[in-house]
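fyi for ur records
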Amino acid sequence: MKRWFAGLFVDFVVLALGGLSLLAPFIFPWARSAGNQGTTFPIMVSLIIILCLMIIFLEAQSTVLSSKMIAFLGVLIAINAGIRFLENAIPGPAGFSPTFFLIILIGYLFGSRIGFLMGAMTMFVSALITGGVGPWLPGQMITAGWVGQSAGLLKFFLTKCKGKPLEVISLAIFGAFWGMLYGVIINLWFWPFLAASPDLIWTQSANLSENLQRYFAYYLATSLVWDITRSVGNVLVILFMAKPVIKVLDRFMQRMVFSYAKVGDQ
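which gave:
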């Protein structure tokens, strides 16, 4: 029971920290300076990494996250970070990113907290590899973490669909949804700091409705095509690759549980 409450607390902190970091420019006047965005960057990254360590410590006390699983997760994060490096080195269609594929599957198969780890640490490690460290990194880590975290909820709805076509189709729809939502959320991370046309930027004197209209206009002008491409890419990758990869991950998970049971019997 204590572990359940601890897990619930960590989940709440993840959502609260992410939500506060994205909404801070709209709530706190001092946070609307681009200089302050750069100042809070190391603090936010540190807090997210501390959250990840808390999740590892919490999950390590269950059968889900053994030492072997931690090593396996590290390998998957490294692979995903390498894929993101290749994506930057050899650009594909605008917005397309295969990195969300593993984040979604890991969250779906191993649970919300492991999914959050996969998403957040993929962005952190890949940023170190690609030189993409900057004020945008906390937003990428939190949002990619949310992708993996929310994928864990699918397991409750797809229990009876295991191994059936509906399972892969549902994952593809989920990938399409996050392909769009990821761009919407990431834009909020830097949109309040932009210096652009007055019709496209956040304005303190405008009301909520007016600012939403400005954001929608900005989104249509700059991000919609990229997000559609990402969404379609997620669908295609999941439809073609999810089934064999799920089989491999399921086999690994079964062997991990079996190994843990054998150790417990000794």
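Residues 39-153+162-247 form a domain with the Arp2/3 complex 21 kDa subunit ARPC3 fold (CATH 1.10.1760.20). thats all i got for now
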